[in-house]
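Ops channel
N.P.: pipeline sanity check, posting one input/output pair.
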């Protein structure tokens, strides 16, 4: 909440050595809490005293929202005490609600003393064993826990009193002494609820909050302020307590308040996800990518079975990483798990791409997690594997690899400018209208839609198949636009490339490769779509892969004549010379050798 100070009056000609009050307020408002500093694992936390004094209450509220770190169900390591092996017990959490456990340090901590570490009457602070280093003498655990609680005036009980008072802000002394009435309290809650409704809508739709010009004279002050204004004008109860009708220092529309509302929504969503997982087992899905500012980021998704028996996938966080080495990614995951109180002992699955830093057998992220938890089995996405296999096979065959190079050149040349794309759409539109008038095709819902050539990509599933489908259906239109480029292009390079591509498209080998790959990619595309369905399991996936392999084998043995008939019909329809399979044809690239068709 903003604070206002009465400035000290300075006579004319006098100078004041005190800092400017407005600068103090501005400096305090510039200090923001980094939520990455709020860590659930007590052994990795930064003490409250190390935060800026203006942020300490905010820090305490964040930790109160998350509660003490109590990883129930965690496999606690055993420590030798003579001939006995002892470890931390889950039952201690039920007896001592303040008790926390640090996975990183294998030690017990006090949640209340961490938040409100104070001196007792003798000038003694709460002991460091339960606030900094961690207690792990499990043989004398119960005895030391009771000693830590101590007498009525102990440090622990002082921290408990402050903890309970901090929780009950409404009935605290400071709140009672305020001169605020019940009506002001209700007005504040109404304004806060309206701002929160606007925040939830913008977050759900993925819209930006801020505007370029948020001044009162601006015609567009940004999504948050404009939607907040529109919402209040349609609700009389809200309109009476917001904007001009609200106190100048309590309108809940400042950029800092907007950030706080967004962070609060994110914290609540994350808390719901963590609570839904509970003590159940879960799997980890990770992928890394760069954002628009060229920063490496890691997206983390958790997959688990909820209480109703349904498989749930929830996006947990995006974590910035300095690099994409396996050690850096593992450290980032460790920090994220500690922040949200998740345990690696509950991890039962890993899902990454096929990069060496992810699935490496010795130093990959998969291997590092398996060293810590051997039950976290690694599974590479079957749809991703299928795409990698298709790309590798295509690049391994010279004819197919050359074919896709020409396809990429055709797509790039015909879509190099908006003018060429519009010309391609217009030529295709005129062709469809002619066919409709002649009765060769029929109209209907979802038919004869406006399309363009899709750009193929190795990492986009099904993109090659979609490109070949559209190229075969728009064959005449593509030939037409390439002819226009050959005649009208301003550079000789584009004219020569267009002519070469036309000659290549009129070649029987190119047409044969087009239909062959379209048929093969059609089989694999159906499998890829099925594998991407959320209700598939590994047994069904293996069965589907075996079925696809049988289809490919049947085509290899008996399907060539079908492809040849389709290619010949296509060539006759588009006036492309059909070769005789009995003729001898010189192999391209070697004039001394020849082959039969």
């Amino acid at each position: 909440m903003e604070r206002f100070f009465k400035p000290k009056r300075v006579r004319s000609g006098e100078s004041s050595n005190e800092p400017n009050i407005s600068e103090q307020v501005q400096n305090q408002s510039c200090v923001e809490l980094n939520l990455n500093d709020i860590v659930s694992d007590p052994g990795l936390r930064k003490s409250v005293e190390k935060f800026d004094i203006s942020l300490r209450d905010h820090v305490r509220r964040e930790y109160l929202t998350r509660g003490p770190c109590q990883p129930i169900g965690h496999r606690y390591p055993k420590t030798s005490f003579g001939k006995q092996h002892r470890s931390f017990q889950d039952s201690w959490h039920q007896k001592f609600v303040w008790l926390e456990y640090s996975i990183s340090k294998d030690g017990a901590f006090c949640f209340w003393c961490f938040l409100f570490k104070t001196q007792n009457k003798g000038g003694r602070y709460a002991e460091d064993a339960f606030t900094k280093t961690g207690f792990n003498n499990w043989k004398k655990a119960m005895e030391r826990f009771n000693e830590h609680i101590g007498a009525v005036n102990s440090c622990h009980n002082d921290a408990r009193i402050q903890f309970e008072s901090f929780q009950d802000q409404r009935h605290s002394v400071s709140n009672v002494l305020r001169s605020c009435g019940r009506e002001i309290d209700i007005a504040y809650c109404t304004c806060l609820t309206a701002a929160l409704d606007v925040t939830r809508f913008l977050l759900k739709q993925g819209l930006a909050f801020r505007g370029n010009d948020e001044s009162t004279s601006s015609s567009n002050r940004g999504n948050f302020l404009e939607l907040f204004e529109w919402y209040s004008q349609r609700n009389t109860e809200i309109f009476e307590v917001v904007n001009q009708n609200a106190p100048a220092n309590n309108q809940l529309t400042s950029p800092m308040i907007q950030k706080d509302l967004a962070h609060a929504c994110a914290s609540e969503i994350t808390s719901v996800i963590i609570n839904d997982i509970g003590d159940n087992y879960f799997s980890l899905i990770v992928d890394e990518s760069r954002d628009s500012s060229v920063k490496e980021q890691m997206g983390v998704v958790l997959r688990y079975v909820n209480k109703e028996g349904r498989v749930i996938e929830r996006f947990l966080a995006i974590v910035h990483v300095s690099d994409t080495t396996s050690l850096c990614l593992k450290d980032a995951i460790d920090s994220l798990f500690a922040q949200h109180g998740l345990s690696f002992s509950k991890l039962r699955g890993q899902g990454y791409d096929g990069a060496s830093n992810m699935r490496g057998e010795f130093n990959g992220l998969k291997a590092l997690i398996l060293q810590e938890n051997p039950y976290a089995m690694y599974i590479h996405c079957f749809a991703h594997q299928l795409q990698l296999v298709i790309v590798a096979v295509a690049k391994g065959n010279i004819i197919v690899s050359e074919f896709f190079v020409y396809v990429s050149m055709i797509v790039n040349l015909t879509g190099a400018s908006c003018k060429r794309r519009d010309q391609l759409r217009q030529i295709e539109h005129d062709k469809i209208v002619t066919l409709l008038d002649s009765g060769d095709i029929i109209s209907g819902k979802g038919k004869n839609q406006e399309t363009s050539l899709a750009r193929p990509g190795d990492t986009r599933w099904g993109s090659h198949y979609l490109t070949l489908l559209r190229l075969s259906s728009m064959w005449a239109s593509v030939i037409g636009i390439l002819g226009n480029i050959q005649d009208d292009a301003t550079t000789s390079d584009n004219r020569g490339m267009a002519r070469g591509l036309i000659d290549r498209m009129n070649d029987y080998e190119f047409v044969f490769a087009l239909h062959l790959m379209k048929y093969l990619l059609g089989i694999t595309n159906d499998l890829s779509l099925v594998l991407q369905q959320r209700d598939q399991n590994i047994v069904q996936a293996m069965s589907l892969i075996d079925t696809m392999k049988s289809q490919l084998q049947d085509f290899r043995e008996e399907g060539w004549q079908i492809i040849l008939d389709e290619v010949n019909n296509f060539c006759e329809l588009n006036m492309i010379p059909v070769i005789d399979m009995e003729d001898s044809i010189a192999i391209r690239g070697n004039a001394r050798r020849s082959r039969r068709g």
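N.P.: looks fine end to end. Residues 1-29 have pLDDT under 50 and may be disordered.
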